[in-house]
Design a protein that fits this description.
This protein has about 350 residues and is an alpha/beta fold. The protein folds into two domains: about 30-255, Type I PLP-dependent aspartate aminotransferase-like (Major domain) (Aspartate Aminotransferase, domain 2, 3-Layer(aba) Sandwich); about 270-340, no CATH class. It is built from 13 helices and ten strands. Strand 4, helix 7 and strand 5 form a beta-alpha-beta unit. Helix 1 (about 25-30) packs antiparallel against helix 11 (about 245-255). The longest helix is centred in the C-terminal third of the chain and has 17 residues, at about 270-285. The two termini are about 35 Å apart. The relative contact order is 0.16. The protein binds pyridoxal-5'-phosphate (PLP). Pyridoxal-5'-phosphate (PLP) binds near residues 67, 147, 177 and 208. InterPro entries: ArAA_b-elim_lyase/Thr_aldolase, Low_specificity_L-TA-like, PyrdxlP-dep_Trfase, PyrdxlP-dep_Trfase_major. Pfam families: Beta_elim_lyase (PF01212). Its cofactor is pyridoxal 5'-phosphate. Belongs to the threonine aldolase family. This is Aromatic amino acid beta-eliminating lyase/threonine aldolase domain-containing protein.
Length: about 350
Protein backbone atom coordinates (compact mmCIF):
# COMPACT_ATOMS: atom_id res chain seq x y z
CA UNK A 1 0.00 0.00 0.00
CA UNK A 2 1.27 3.48 -0.81
CA UNK A 3 1.34 5.79 2.16
CA UNK A 4 0.85 9.37 1.07
CA UNK A 5 1.83 12.13 3.47
CA UNK A 6 -1.31 14.10 4.35
CA UNK A 7 -1.57 17.83 3.97
CA UNK A 8 -3.14 18.79 7.26
CA UNK A 9 -3.93 21.99 9.07
CA UNK A 10 -0.46 21.61 10.62
CA UNK A 11 1.22 21.45 7.23
CA UNK A 12 -0.73 24.52 6.19
CA UNK A 13 0.82 26.83 8.73
CA UNK A 14 -1.43 29.64 9.81
CA UNK A 15 -0.30 32.69 7.89
CA UNK A 16 1.05 30.70 4.94
CA UNK A 17 0.35 32.84 1.95
CA UNK A 18 2.06 31.02 -0.87
CA UNK A 19 0.59 28.15 -2.83
CA UNK A 20 1.04 24.65 -1.43
CA UNK A 21 0.97 21.33 -3.32
CA UNK A 22 -2.25 19.36 -3.23
CA UNK A 23 -2.69 15.85 -1.90
CA UNK A 24 -2.81 14.54 -5.48
CA UNK A 25 0.58 16.07 -6.24
CA UNK A 26 2.16 14.40 -3.24
CA UNK A 27 0.56 11.10 -4.20
CA UNK A 28 1.97 11.43 -7.72
CA UNK A 29 5.48 11.46 -6.23
CA UNK A 30 4.89 8.04 -4.71
CA UNK A 31 3.97 6.61 -8.08
CA UNK A 32 6.62 8.32 -10.21
CA UNK A 33 9.69 6.82 -11.87
CA UNK A 34 13.15 7.26 -10.34
CA UNK A 35 15.44 7.08 -13.33
CA UNK A 36 18.23 9.54 -14.07
CA UNK A 37 17.22 12.55 -16.12
CA UNK A 38 20.79 13.72 -16.74
CA UNK A 39 21.12 10.54 -18.85
CA UNK A 40 17.62 11.12 -20.30
CA UNK A 41 16.39 7.83 -18.82
CA UNK A 42 13.43 9.02 -16.77
CA UNK A 43 10.21 8.21 -18.59
CA UNK A 44 8.01 10.52 -16.45
CA UNK A 45 10.22 13.50 -17.25
CA UNK A 46 10.67 12.55 -20.90
CA UNK A 47 6.95 12.03 -21.50
CA UNK A 48 6.01 15.20 -19.64
CA UNK A 49 8.45 17.26 -21.70
CA UNK A 50 7.08 15.72 -24.90
CA UNK A 51 3.50 16.49 -23.79
CA UNK A 52 4.42 20.10 -23.08
CA UNK A 53 6.05 20.46 -26.50
CA UNK A 54 2.87 19.13 -28.13
CA UNK A 55 0.61 21.32 -26.01
CA UNK A 56 2.49 24.43 -27.11
CA UNK A 57 3.16 23.38 -30.70
CA UNK A 58 6.95 23.34 -30.30
CA UNK A 59 9.48 20.67 -31.23
CA UNK A 60 10.96 20.13 -27.80
CA UNK A 61 10.79 21.08 -24.12
CA UNK A 62 13.02 20.98 -21.08
CA UNK A 63 11.98 20.97 -17.43
CA UNK A 64 13.60 23.71 -15.32
CA UNK A 65 13.85 24.29 -11.60
CA UNK A 66 12.32 27.76 -11.71
CA UNK A 67 10.85 30.42 -13.95
CA UNK A 68 14.03 32.44 -13.64
CA UNK A 69 16.13 29.52 -14.83
CA UNK A 70 13.72 28.92 -17.69
CA UNK A 71 13.72 32.56 -18.83
CA UNK A 72 17.45 32.92 -18.49
CA UNK A 73 18.35 29.72 -20.31
CA UNK A 74 15.79 30.47 -23.01
CA UNK A 75 17.43 33.82 -23.65
CA UNK A 76 20.91 32.33 -23.35
CA UNK A 77 20.08 29.66 -25.90
CA UNK A 78 18.84 32.28 -28.37
CA UNK A 79 21.89 34.50 -27.95
CA UNK A 80 25.28 33.21 -29.00
CA UNK A 81 27.77 36.00 -29.61
CA UNK A 82 27.75 39.52 -28.08
CA UNK A 83 27.41 42.40 -28.66
CA UNK A 84 23.64 42.24 -28.66
CA UNK A 85 20.56 43.43 -26.77
CA UNK A 86 17.30 42.05 -25.43
CA UNK A 87 14.36 44.41 -25.83
CA UNK A 88 11.70 44.05 -23.17
CA UNK A 89 8.96 45.81 -21.21
CA UNK A 90 10.42 48.24 -18.67
CA UNK A 91 8.38 46.54 -15.90
CA UNK A 92 9.56 43.04 -16.90
CA UNK A 93 10.52 40.26 -14.53
CA UNK A 94 13.77 39.61 -16.44
CA UNK A 95 14.92 43.17 -15.73
CA UNK A 96 13.92 43.59 -12.12
CA UNK A 97 13.67 40.20 -10.45
CA UNK A 98 16.17 37.81 -11.98
CA UNK A 99 19.32 39.02 -10.22
CA UNK A 100 20.79 40.56 -13.34
CA UNK A 101 20.97 37.14 -14.99
CA UNK A 102 20.72 38.46 -18.54
CA UNK A 103 23.95 40.43 -18.11
CA UNK A 104 25.90 37.65 -16.44
CA UNK A 105 24.61 34.68 -18.44
CA UNK A 106 24.33 36.14 -21.93
CA UNK A 107 26.43 39.32 -21.89
CA UNK A 108 23.48 41.13 -23.48
CA UNK A 109 22.42 44.65 -22.67
CA UNK A 110 18.76 45.20 -21.91
CA UNK A 111 16.60 47.68 -23.79
CA UNK A 112 13.67 48.51 -21.48
CA UNK A 113 10.67 49.94 -23.33
CA UNK A 114 7.77 51.75 -21.66
CA UNK A 115 4.31 50.57 -22.73
CA UNK A 116 2.73 53.79 -24.02
CA UNK A 117 -0.80 52.57 -23.27
CA UNK A 118 0.20 51.72 -19.68
CA UNK A 119 -0.82 48.09 -20.14
CA UNK A 120 1.18 46.19 -22.77
CA UNK A 121 3.88 46.85 -25.37
CA UNK A 122 2.69 47.56 -28.89
CA UNK A 123 4.55 47.05 -32.14
CA UNK A 124 4.95 50.82 -32.41
CA UNK A 125 6.53 51.02 -28.93
CA UNK A 126 9.00 48.34 -29.97
CA UNK A 127 9.76 49.78 -33.40
CA UNK A 128 10.60 53.07 -31.72
CA UNK A 129 13.34 51.45 -29.62
CA UNK A 130 14.66 48.36 -31.42
CA UNK A 131 18.20 48.72 -32.72
CA UNK A 132 18.35 47.11 -36.15
CA UNK A 133 21.38 49.00 -37.38
CA UNK A 134 24.70 47.14 -37.25
CA UNK A 135 26.59 50.44 -36.88
CA UNK A 136 29.82 49.84 -34.96
CA UNK A 137 28.82 51.74 -31.81
CA UNK A 138 25.46 49.99 -31.36
CA UNK A 139 24.45 46.84 -29.52
CA UNK A 140 21.80 45.47 -31.90
CA UNK A 141 18.51 43.98 -30.74
CA UNK A 142 18.53 40.22 -31.26
CA UNK A 143 15.67 39.09 -29.02
CA UNK A 144 12.33 40.63 -28.07
CA UNK A 145 11.25 39.23 -24.71
CA UNK A 146 7.57 39.70 -23.85
CA UNK A 147 5.77 38.85 -20.61
CA UNK A 148 2.17 37.61 -20.42
CA UNK A 149 0.53 38.20 -18.07
CA UNK A 150 2.56 41.13 -16.74
CA UNK A 151 1.38 42.37 -13.36
CA UNK A 152 -1.77 40.39 -14.09
CA UNK A 153 -2.37 42.29 -17.34
CA UNK A 154 -3.06 40.44 -20.56
CA UNK A 155 -1.09 41.02 -23.73
CA UNK A 156 -3.64 40.61 -26.55
CA UNK A 157 -2.92 37.86 -29.07
CA UNK A 158 -3.39 40.26 -31.98
CA UNK A 159 -0.62 42.54 -30.72
CA UNK A 160 1.67 39.57 -30.10
CA UNK A 161 1.08 38.47 -33.71
CA UNK A 162 1.90 41.93 -35.08
CA UNK A 163 5.12 42.05 -33.05
CA UNK A 164 6.13 38.49 -33.91
CA UNK A 165 5.52 38.93 -37.65
CA UNK A 166 7.59 42.09 -37.73
CA UNK A 167 10.35 40.67 -35.49
CA UNK A 168 10.76 37.53 -37.56
CA UNK A 169 10.82 39.56 -40.77
CA UNK A 170 13.70 41.52 -39.25
CA UNK A 171 15.52 38.35 -38.21
CA UNK A 172 14.88 38.87 -34.48
CA UNK A 173 14.00 36.05 -32.09
CA UNK A 174 11.03 36.13 -29.74
CA UNK A 175 11.00 34.86 -26.14
CA UNK A 176 7.91 34.76 -23.93
CA UNK A 177 8.03 34.88 -20.16
CA UNK A 178 4.75 33.03 -19.87
CA UNK A 179 5.15 32.22 -16.18
CA UNK A 180 1.49 33.19 -15.89
CA UNK A 181 0.32 32.65 -19.47
CA UNK A 182 -2.24 30.20 -18.07
CA UNK A 183 -4.17 33.18 -16.71
CA UNK A 184 -4.34 34.94 -20.09
CA UNK A 185 -5.62 31.73 -21.66
CA UNK A 186 -8.23 31.11 -18.96
CA UNK A 187 -9.40 34.73 -19.35
CA UNK A 188 -10.18 33.88 -23.00
CA UNK A 189 -7.38 35.87 -24.67
CA UNK A 190 -6.22 32.96 -26.85
CA UNK A 191 -5.11 29.35 -26.54
CA UNK A 192 -1.73 28.09 -25.37
CA UNK A 193 -1.01 27.00 -28.92
CA UNK A 194 -1.99 30.32 -30.45
CA UNK A 195 0.28 32.28 -28.13
CA UNK A 196 3.20 29.83 -28.04
CA UNK A 197 3.50 29.51 -31.80
CA UNK A 198 4.43 33.20 -32.07
CA UNK A 199 7.62 32.69 -30.04
CA UNK A 200 10.94 30.90 -30.49
CA UNK A 201 11.07 30.05 -26.79
CA UNK A 202 8.41 30.12 -24.10
CA UNK A 203 8.74 29.76 -20.33
CA UNK A 204 5.70 28.40 -18.46
CA UNK A 205 5.64 27.94 -14.67
CA UNK A 206 3.95 25.16 -12.69
CA UNK A 207 4.56 26.79 -9.32
CA UNK A 208 2.69 30.02 -8.46
CA UNK A 209 -0.86 29.80 -9.85
CA UNK A 210 -0.82 26.08 -10.70
CA UNK A 211 0.34 25.16 -7.22
CA UNK A 212 3.29 22.82 -7.85
CA UNK A 213 6.06 23.32 -5.28
CA UNK A 214 8.50 24.27 -8.02
CA UNK A 215 9.30 23.87 -11.68
CA UNK A 216 8.92 25.46 -15.08
CA UNK A 217 9.18 24.35 -18.67
CA UNK A 218 11.03 25.91 -21.55
CA UNK A 219 9.75 25.02 -25.02
CA UNK A 220 11.41 25.70 -28.35
CA UNK A 221 13.07 24.05 -31.33
CA UNK A 222 15.15 20.90 -30.86
CA UNK A 223 18.30 22.89 -31.53
CA UNK A 224 17.47 25.62 -29.02
CA UNK A 225 16.44 23.18 -26.31
CA UNK A 226 19.65 21.20 -26.83
CA UNK A 227 21.65 24.39 -26.15
CA UNK A 228 19.50 25.14 -23.08
CA UNK A 229 20.05 21.58 -21.80
CA UNK A 230 23.80 21.94 -22.07
CA UNK A 231 23.80 25.28 -20.28
CA UNK A 232 21.37 24.02 -17.64
CA UNK A 233 23.93 21.30 -16.94
CA UNK A 234 26.79 23.80 -16.80
CA UNK A 235 25.12 25.80 -14.02
CA UNK A 236 24.21 22.74 -11.97
CA UNK A 237 20.61 22.50 -13.12
CA UNK A 238 20.90 18.93 -14.42
CA UNK A 239 18.60 16.84 -12.21
CA UNK A 240 18.96 13.18 -11.41
CA UNK A 241 15.60 11.79 -10.28
CA UNK A 242 13.61 14.58 -11.84
CA UNK A 243 10.49 12.39 -12.00
CA UNK A 244 9.73 13.48 -8.43
CA UNK A 245 9.26 17.02 -9.72
CA UNK A 246 7.76 16.39 -13.14
CA UNK A 247 5.11 14.08 -11.66
CA UNK A 248 3.92 16.93 -9.43
CA UNK A 249 4.14 19.45 -12.26
CA UNK A 250 1.94 17.24 -14.45
CA UNK A 251 -0.74 17.02 -11.75
CA UNK A 252 -0.60 20.79 -11.21
CA UNK A 253 -1.15 21.36 -14.91
CA UNK A 254 -3.96 18.86 -15.39
CA UNK A 255 -5.79 19.61 -12.15
CA UNK A 256 -5.48 23.40 -11.98
CA UNK A 257 -5.20 24.59 -15.58
CA UNK A 258 -6.90 21.65 -17.26
CA UNK A 259 -5.89 19.16 -19.90
CA UNK A 260 -6.56 21.10 -23.13
CA UNK A 261 -5.01 24.18 -24.71
CA UNK A 262 -7.91 26.49 -23.79
CA UNK A 263 -8.02 26.10 -20.01
CA UNK A 264 -11.67 25.05 -20.29
CA UNK A 265 -13.16 24.44 -16.85
CA UNK A 266 -9.93 25.62 -15.24
CA UNK A 267 -9.84 26.23 -11.51
CA UNK A 268 -8.04 29.50 -12.24
CA UNK A 269 -11.31 31.04 -13.45
CA UNK A 270 -12.63 31.20 -9.89
CA UNK A 271 -9.45 33.01 -8.77
CA UNK A 272 -10.10 35.62 -11.45
CA UNK A 273 -13.67 36.06 -10.20
CA UNK A 274 -12.42 36.36 -6.63
CA UNK A 275 -9.84 38.96 -7.66
CA UNK A 276 -12.52 41.02 -9.43
CA UNK A 277 -14.75 40.74 -6.39
CA UNK A 278 -11.95 42.09 -4.15
CA UNK A 279 -11.16 44.91 -6.60
CA UNK A 280 -14.84 45.92 -6.85
CA UNK A 281 -15.24 45.79 -3.08
CA UNK A 282 -12.21 48.06 -2.59
CA UNK A 283 -13.60 50.55 -5.13
CA UNK A 284 -17.09 50.41 -3.62
CA UNK A 285 -15.53 51.28 -0.26
CA UNK A 286 -13.97 54.37 -1.85
CA UNK A 287 -10.56 52.89 -2.66
CA UNK A 288 -8.57 53.40 -5.84
CA UNK A 289 -6.71 50.76 -7.85
CA UNK A 290 -3.24 51.15 -9.37
CA UNK A 291 -4.41 49.33 -12.51
CA UNK A 292 -7.19 47.17 -13.89
CA UNK A 293 -7.80 43.65 -12.58
CA UNK A 294 -7.79 41.45 -15.68
CA UNK A 295 -6.82 38.13 -14.13
CA UNK A 296 -5.81 37.15 -10.59
CA UNK A 297 -3.97 40.26 -9.39
CA UNK A 298 -5.33 43.30 -7.58
CA UNK A 299 -3.16 46.37 -7.02
CA UNK A 300 -4.52 48.59 -4.25
CA UNK A 301 -3.60 52.26 -4.28
CA UNK A 302 -2.78 52.41 -0.59
CA UNK A 303 -1.08 55.78 -0.95
CA UNK A 304 -4.34 57.34 -2.18
CA UNK A 305 -6.07 55.64 0.76
CA UNK A 306 -3.57 57.30 3.07
CA UNK A 307 -2.17 54.10 4.57
CA UNK A 308 1.34 52.68 4.67
CA UNK A 309 2.27 49.06 3.97
CA UNK A 310 2.81 48.52 7.70
CA UNK A 311 -0.64 49.89 8.49
CA UNK A 312 -2.18 47.74 5.75
CA UNK A 313 -0.53 44.70 7.29
CA UNK A 314 -1.78 45.66 10.78
CA UNK A 315 -5.34 46.31 9.63
CA UNK A 316 -5.38 43.06 7.68
CA UNK A 317 -4.10 41.08 10.66
CA UNK A 318 -6.81 42.60 12.86
CA UNK A 319 -9.34 41.21 10.37
CA UNK A 320 -7.78 37.77 10.09
CA UNK A 321 -6.07 38.40 6.76
CA UNK A 322 -2.40 38.09 5.84
CA UNK A 323 -1.63 40.92 3.41
CA UNK A 324 1.93 42.17 3.09
CA UNK A 325 1.69 44.85 0.45
CA UNK A 326 -0.54 46.49 -2.13
CA UNK A 327 -0.26 43.61 -4.62
CA UNK A 328 -2.81 40.90 -3.91
CA UNK A 329 -2.54 37.68 -5.89
CA UNK A 330 -5.52 35.38 -5.63
CA UNK A 331 -4.89 31.70 -6.13
CA UNK A 332 -6.61 28.38 -5.83
CA UNK A 333 -5.94 26.31 -2.74
CA UNK A 334 -7.81 23.11 -2.28
CA UNK A 335 -8.18 23.40 1.45
CA UNK A 336 -9.49 26.93 1.48
CA UNK A 337 -10.28 27.82 -2.15
CA UNK A 338 -8.95 31.36 -2.28
CA UNK A 339 -6.00 32.67 -0.42
CA UNK A 340 -3.44 35.37 -0.87
CA UNK A 341 -0.11 34.63 -2.40
CA UNK A 342 2.99 36.45 -1.22
CA UNK A 343 5.31 36.69 -4.13
CA UNK A 344 4.78 34.56 -7.15
C1 LIG B 1 6.23 36.80 -14.72
C2 LIG B 1 7.23 36.01 -13.95
N1 LIG B 1 8.31 35.53 -14.58
C3 LIG B 1 9.23 34.79 -13.95
C4 LIG B 1 9.12 34.50 -12.61
C5 LIG B 1 10.21 33.74 -11.94
O1 LIG B 1 9.84 32.51 -11.47
P1 LIG B 1 10.65 31.80 -10.29
O2 LIG B 1 10.32 32.55 -9.03
O3 LIG B 1 10.16 30.40 -10.32
O4 LIG B 1 12.10 31.90 -10.63
C6 LIG B 1 8.00 34.99 -11.90
C7 LIG B 1 7.84 34.72 -10.46
O5 LIG B 1 6.95 35.16 -9.81
C8 LIG B 1 7.03 35.75 -12.58
O6 LIG B 1 5.94 36.24 -11.96
Amino acid sequence: MLLAPRITEHTLHKGDIVTVPTQEMLEAVLKTTFKDDVYREDSTTESFQAEMATLTGHEDAIFMLSGTMSNQLGLRALLMQPPYSVLTDSRGHIIHYEAGGVASLTGASLQPVVASNGKYLTLEDIQGKAVLDEYVQYSPTRVISLENTLNGLIMPLEEVRRISTWAHQKGLKMHLDGARLWDAVVAGAGSLLEYAREFDTVNLCFSKGLGAPLGSILVGSKKTIAVARKIRQSIGGGMHQAGVLTAMARVSLNATFGTGVNGKGSLLAQSHKNAKYIADLWVRLGGKLLGPTETCMVFLDIKAAGISRIRLEELSAQNGLVIKNERLVVHYRKSCQADFERDG
